[in-house]
Specification:
By secondary structure, this protein is mainly β. The chain has one domain: Beta Barrel (Lipocalin). It contains one helix and eight strands, in the order αββββββββ. The protein has an eight-stranded antiparallel β-barrel with strand order 1-2-3-4-5-6-7-8. The longest helix has 18 residues.
Length: 135
């Protein structure tokens, strides 16, 4: 009887640990110039620029002229991320440096490391970088 109870406890602990593996938290982008806060947004996840190393710039390359004068601080850069496998989420990423949206794949490589990959539509150019957890 003890063996069955221990096995059930081990399974519950294992699944509880797997369920908690997500990218929610604050992440420093690869060049260290900003921190992105990932949080739950509806049924998915989203990420916003939480801080910048220096004075925040403007969203000057946004395709919407009405948004080009807004600060990059607070803009959503990870949009509608949905689970897509073990420690993988897919959605959209916005790049304020060029004002474009990309198909995004976000992979939690470890509790401290997040891999972000963005690709243009229809097999366009792809880029990736590694973010580090701040908290």
């Amino acid at each position: 009887m003890k063996r069955v109870v221990l096995t059930a406890f081990a399974l519950v602990t294992l699944f509880a640990g797997a369920a908690s593996a997500d990218p929610i938290g604050d992440w420093r982008v690869a060049d260290g110039g900003a921190t992105v806060r990932i949080k739950k947004c509806g049924a998915g996840l989203c990420g916003f620029v939480a801080s910048t190393k220096g004075a925040p710039g403007k969203d000057e390359r946004n395709p919407d002229p009405a948004k080009r004068n807004r600060s990059v601080l607070g803009i959503e850069v990870l949009i509608n991320l949905r689970p897509s496998g073990n420690n993988v989420w897919t959605g959209t990423t916005y790049n304020a440096e060029d004002g474009l949206l990309y198909n995004a794949t976000v992979t939690l490589s470890s509790e401290r490391t997040l891999e972000i990959k963005g690709c243009g539509a229809n097999g366009g150019v792809c880029g990736s970088e590694t973010w580090n957890r701040v908290r």
